[in-house]
Amino acid sequence: MSMPTIREVRAYTVRGGGADYHDQGEDHWIDGQIATPMGKYPEYRPHRRNFGLNVLGTLVVEVEATDGTVGFGVTTAGELGAWIVENHLARFIEGTRASDVEKLWDQMFNATLFYGRKGIVLNVISGVDLAMWDLLGKLRDEPVHQLLGGPVRDELSFYATGARPDLARDMGFLGGKMPLVHGPAEGDDGMERNLAHLAKMREAVGSDFWLMWDCWMSLDVSYATRLAQRAREFDLKWIEEALPPDDYWGYAELRRNVPTGMWVNTGEHEATRWGFRMLLEMECCDVIQPDVGWCGGITELLKISALADAHGRYVIPHGSSVYSYHFVVTRHNSPFSEFLMMAPKADRVVPMFSPLLLDEPVPENGRMSVSQLDRPGFGVRLNPDCELARPFTH
Ligand SMILES: C[C@H](O)[C@H](O)CC(=O)C(=O)O
Ligand SMILES: [Mg+2]
Fold first, then answer.
1. What are the tens digits of pLDDT across the range 312-354?
2. Ramachandran region, residue 353 (left: φ > 0; alpha: ψ -120 to 50; beta: rest)
3. Which NCBIfam families did the record assign (predicted)?
4. Which terminus of the chain has a lower count of CB atoms within 10 Å, N or C?
């Protein structure tokens, strides 16, 4: 088959959930009181949306091939991301062969180095890369997991992230990762409250269920060390993203400080093989957690994952829904997956990118069969009921 080229790239934005999963309505657990780096300012403590956690919104990138086939990818980047795609990246995307993902990634990354490297620019590059893999799967009539070498197991197993690990246990998940509520600025009282909550959850779930804390970059080494040491009594499996992402030295110290057997996990706000190289070579963590929509997409994740494998480390992607599932099932060093509980009260399973996608698979009883992923590309469709805007054209 002769490979089509890309005829047009289009960048859309959409609000209300989707890839910007923090862009939820009032009273959603994910936007409630959670420890954050802004928690030192009391006015920004009660609600994460107060400091703008949801300002970006979702970016949808569509790539249309010369034969009319369309692939798409979604990420967190909104209008800023749409501007970058339409005004800068389009020149590399249009005219490229649909299978030339490697060359395209290299061009997008190098052309944006002077203002990119991490953060929103890498989210955008990821979104384009995911659209290209989706297109390639559709053109070849194969699921992306087949393009990546094929599954190494028949099903995926999930832990749940949300405010109600006790309910996640009843839903068949392997474990529950809770948001840490109180940060260092809330002193000893906050520390005691955090521990009391963990104790209560351990009591509720029993001893054979993983419990983890997601600290969303909010702590310092001293606080995280004390928290981890005291959490040993309640068998905390891992402490996640305890420190700001740039504090590689702090992570290395924390990893030396935590009780034997407790994992230090991080990486959802890290990007590219070079960022993860720092985490791995400095022995910052036990598990890396790249977000497929933020770290550079599938093309970059393949490199990050190989590097982690050579360091004997697991890759358990952050969120990422189908982008994670198609990848994880092809790697031996990705033995389980995250599922983010998007129901406002974390009391039922709702697709992570809801309501933006149709056919988005979800775990049943904490598991997902590979057969649920057996559709061309990433196997999902854009929901026509979600109103997309195209703020810029080129
Ligand atoms: C719950 C966390 O604060 C965040 O919203 C999600 C996250 O970090 C994770 O799923 O991991
Ligand atoms: Mg996290």
1. 999 999 999 999 999 999 999 999 999 999 999 999 999 999 9
2. alpha
3. PRK15440.1
4. N
Could you tell me the two tokens for 337? Answer: 């997956």
Give the model confidence (pLDDT) of 259-309 as tens digits.
999 999 999 999 999 999 999 999 999 999 999 999 999 999 999 999 999
Which residues are annotated as part of the binding site for substrate? 22, 48, 338
- ∠ CA 216-218-219, nearest 5°, is 125
Residues with Cβ within 5 Å of ion ligand 2?
Answer: 214, 240-241, 268
Domains annotated on the chain, with CATH: 6-20+56-141 (3.30.390.10), 147-375 (3.20.20.120)
Atom of ligand 1 nearest to the CA of 340: 10
Average pLDDT, the chain: 97
What's 377's DSSP letter? Answer: B
Question: Does residue 1 have a pLDDT over 80?
Answer: no
pTM of the model: 0.98
In this prediction, residue 25 has a pLDDT band, given cuts at 50, 70 and 90, of confident
297-310 and 101-111 are packed helices; what angle lies between their axes, rounded to 10 degrees?
90
What number does the ligand 1 atom closest to the CA of 21 have?
Answer: 5
